[in-house]
Structure formats: C-alpha cells, structure tokens
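Extended Data, panel c. Modelled sequence:
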Amino acid sequence: MKIDSNESLDSREVIDAVWSAVSKLHGEHGASRTGLMLISYDAQERLAVVRTVHDAVGMVRAAIASITRIQDKQVALHVLRVSGTIKALHKKMGQQQPI
C-alpha cells in the first residue's frame, strides 16, 4: 500500500492504524480472523507490504480505505496491488524481494 502524507510515519504507527481500522469496522472477532501482519515498510518511499489471509482481503481493503488519520497526522492509504504470494507481489511491483 502507498501512504500519502506530508508527515513521517514509522512502521508501528502504520500497522497499529490498520489493526485499529479493521477492529472498528469488523470487531475483534473479525480482526482476529485476518492474520494481519506488516511484512515490510519503506518510510522513504512510503510503501508498506501487509499480509492477510485470502478470505480477509476485502475486510482489510475496506479498513485501509477508511483510514484518514494516523497519530493526528492526515493520511490517505492506497492499495496498489494484491497478490497470492509475497514473491509474486514483489515481481508485480518490479522490486527485488527482501532477504
């Protein structure tokens, strides 16, 4: 996902905001079914790779779209790509897969 913001954010702030949004929209039970995990975060490029179970992709996408503020910083999050595997995602994005 791409993070549009004039402010700098760290990885913890980003994943906490996504978890919070998922919990608000789908409750704790729904959030627990997502298997949500931050795989990588590039603060300079403002790109994050998040992992979730296949059945929860729609839930997580909806939650990401609902985020407008992170720690009182105005943001907009955009899902760029969805893929079945991390390796395929990096291939789609034209990036080297992190070691």
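The two ends are 20 Å apart (CA to CA). This feature is highlighted in the accompanying rendering.
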